[in-house]
Every structure is written in C-alpha cells, then in structure tokens.
Amino acid sequence: MKRFIVTGGYGFIGSNLVRLLLKKKFKVLNIDNFSYSAQKYNLRGISKKNYIFKKIDINNRNKLRKILINFKPHGIFNLAADTHVDRSIDDSSNFIKNNIVGVFNLLEAIKSIKTKIKLIHVSTDEVYGDIKGAKRSNEKYTYDPSSPYSASKASSDHLVTSYVKTYKLNALITNCSNNYGPRQFPEKIIPKMIFNIIQNKPLPIYSKGKNSREWIYVDDHCEALIKLFFKGKKGEKYNIGSGFNCNNLFLVNSILKRFKKRKIKIGSKVKIKLVRDRPGHDLRYALNSQKLKRTTNWRPRVTFEEGIEKTIEWYIQNPEFFKNISKKLFTKRLGLL
Ligand SMILES: NC(=O)c1ccc[n+]([C@@H]2O[C@H](COP(=O)([O-])OP(=O)(O)OC[C@H]3O[C@@H](n4cnc5c(N)ncnc54)[C@H](O)[C@@H]3O)[C@@H](O)[C@H]2O)c1
Q1: Closest to 9 in 3D by CA, of 44, 36, 38
Q2: Residue 264 located in a structural domain
Q3: Which residues line ligand 1 (CB under 6 A)?
Q4: Is the sign of the CA dihedral 129, 94, 5, 108 positive or negative?
Q5: Which atom of ligand 1 is nearest to 36's Cα?
Q6: In order along the chain (337 residues), what is the average pLDDT of each group of 10 residues?
Q7: At what angle do helices 12-23 and 218-231 cross, to 10 degrees?
Q8: Is there a domain that residue 274 lies in?
Q9: Structural domain of 167
Q10: Which positions are annotated as active-site residues?
Q11: Which domain CATH number covers 23?
Q12: Quick check: is 263 in a domain?
C-alpha cells in the first residue's frame, strides 16, 4: 500500500485530496499547522483506518525529518500555503514565511534523509502573470508574478527546481488554475457569493467584472495530482487546467441563475455591486494543459455546469461549514492600499 503525506490537508484542496487518497485505499498522513483557513469540518466523517494527523508547521524541519523517517512516505503532496491574494497585499509576511521559507525547510528535511521520496509541489497558474488576448500559457512560459502571493509561489517553484538540479531531489511542480468545489474557505469568490446569497447580502465584484479565470473542479485537480505522482517526471512542470474560462460577471450570474432555478427565494439586497479593483489585479489567466494530458491521459471529468451545481448543493447542505468560521475572517474587504 502506498503511503502519502499531504501538507495543508485541512485546507480546501488538501482535504479533498486526503478524501480522494483514502477512497483509493492509500495510507495518508496529514500535516497542517492549523492556520485560519484550516477547518476541522473539512475532514469530518473520514475513516481513521488509514489516516494520521500531525499538527506541525512545515517550517519545523526537525519534526518533519522525524516524520519522514518514521512514516516512510512514497510521496508528499505539498499544499501547505497562505493562499489569499488580498491578504498578501495587506501583509505578505506569512506568505514569505510559509510559501517560501516553509518550502525551503520541507526541501531540506527531504534532502537530509537521502531517500527517493517523490515531492509533488502544488503551485498556481498565477505565477505566469497576466495572459493577454486568447493565448494560453504552457510550461515554458516566463514567470511574471503580479502579487506577493504569486511571487511567493514562483519563488518556491524556483527553489524546488534548484533542489532537483543541485541535490537530485525527486520532485516535480504542478501549476493549477482556479479551483472550486466543496470546503473552500469563503474569502474566495465562489463560496463568498453563495454565502452572501444565502445571507441576503450584496455581491461585490472587483472593477467591471471582466477578469477572466480558468475554473477547475477540485476533484479533477486532485485526480491529476495522483496521476502525476505515478507518471510525472522528476524536474518537470505540469499545468493543470480544465480549459474553461469565464469572467467574474458571468461566474456570479451563473451562481445566481442556479439559485433561482432551485426556486430559492433571493433577498432584496442580493445584487451585483461593482467595487474598487484590487491593486495589481491580473486580467486573465489561462493554461495550456496538453503536457499533462499527453503524460498521464488525464482529462477533466466535471463540466462547469455540473461542478457549479454540485458546489452550490454542497454549501446549501452543509450550513455548519459557514457557521464554524468567524465572520470577521471573510466579510471584511482586504487588499486595498
Ligand atoms: N485554491 C485554488 O484555486 C488554487 C489554485 C492553484 C493552486 N493552489 C495551491 O494549492 C494549495 C492549497 O490551496 P487551498 O486553496 O487549499 O488553500 P487553503 O488556504 O484552503 O489551505 C491551506 C492549508 O495549508 C495550511 N498551512 C498553511 N501554512 C502552513 C504551514 N506553514 N505548515 C503547515 N500547514 C500550513 C493551512 O492551515 C491550510 O489548512 C496552495 O499551495 C495553493 O497555492 C490553489
């Protein structure tokens, strides 16, 4: 039985990945320092048979080293990070600490035990910066990050590449587009809009709502990560995207439309409100994911229509998810200079 470590396993993507790995009968050790975006609710109800949790910071190199020696993982999926661009604009200290120095400590821990553990370092499409026109960035595209968040992820990607070249670590990097689905912290646009509709609040969209993102259902991302553990090559980068782009106005209108279709009463305050833009806001991200498809035969299984329906359904069926999170953490506007 393969053994995997997931770092950041109480977060959005991490918890969905832990669930998928357990479903596939792998043994999982979750390492999370339980920062503000970690939710106990995200792993509620999982079977503990093949699952262990250690509350550890990836900056704690000694503890990481001991875990690697004792647990003897075949692979590590590194998802531990600070992830909200607006927070990185207000104060990037945690982004430098967790996304750069944290990855450095993780790499050092792996390097110190001299094994062939395969590291899947999970990064983002935001490292490529604004993608103009109808182009899509492939893995050879120059890194050109615009926010402290994307710059911290880009730095960590460079560190990983340097450890493969210099110390022969067995690692690869994945650059994924915007994820959506169950268990996403409501500071991010989709759960935030769902929360606001349920709570009869306005729906704030930055600038004119024209910013375009490529949306992938979280399970499709997690399937791609597992496939890359088995088929991905050391030192390579792989983009992971669905190919489906839309702008924020389209996105929020799609969510509203689905609430109406379910005959859910929409309160009078639920109206799209265009608000001041985020500084350094990239207009468009779009990936070319042909390399992943060629290498692993992966294809996205969930269309946007199915995925957004499933996502809305999950948040409606799980009101405790929102209740367990302090409103202060996601209702205040951040990232304005
Ligand atoms: N959400 C997206 O759309 C998206 C897209 C592409 C890539 N990514 C990447 O995927 C990863 C996970 O993103 P997410 O949306 O699930 O984030 P999230 O904020 O929901 O979860 C991050 C998790 O990491 C944990 N963590 C943070 N710092 C840590 C540390 N020093 N030690 C241990 N645990 C720590 C947090 O407690 C939390 O549980 C990130 O690396 C992010 O850059 C996310």
Answers
A1: 38
A2: no
A3: 7-8, 10-14, 31-35, 37-38, 57-59, 79-83, 98, 102, 122, 124, 153, 176, 178-179, 185
A4: positive
A5: 37
A6: 98 99 98 98 97 98 98 98 98 98 98 94 98 96 98 98 98 99 98 98 98 98 99 98 98 98 95 98 98 98 98 98 96 94
A7: 60
A8: no
A9: 3-184+215-244+284-302
A10: 125-126, 149
A11: 3.40.50.720
A12: no
Report the predicted TM-score, pTM, of the whole model to 2 decimal places.
Answer: 0.98
Rounded to the nearest angstrom, the distance between the alpha carbon of 269 and the centre of ligand 1 is 32
Q: Give the pair of three-digit tokens for residue 74.
A: 């075949």
17, 66, 74, 134, 175 from 235: Cα distances, Å: 22, 25, 17, 29, 13
Give the number of the atom of ligand 1 that is nearest the alpha carbon of residue 149: 43
Cα(133) to centroid of ligand 1, in Å? 29
Q: Is 320 exposed, middle or buried (0-12, 13-18, 19+ CB in 10 A)?
A: exposed
Alpha-carbon span 167 to 164, nearest angstrom: 6
- In ligand 1, which atom is closest to the CA atom of 38? 39
Domain count, the chain: 1
Residue 337 in any domain: the answer is no
Q: Tell me, in angstroms, the distance from the centre of ligand 1 to residue 59's CA.
A: 14
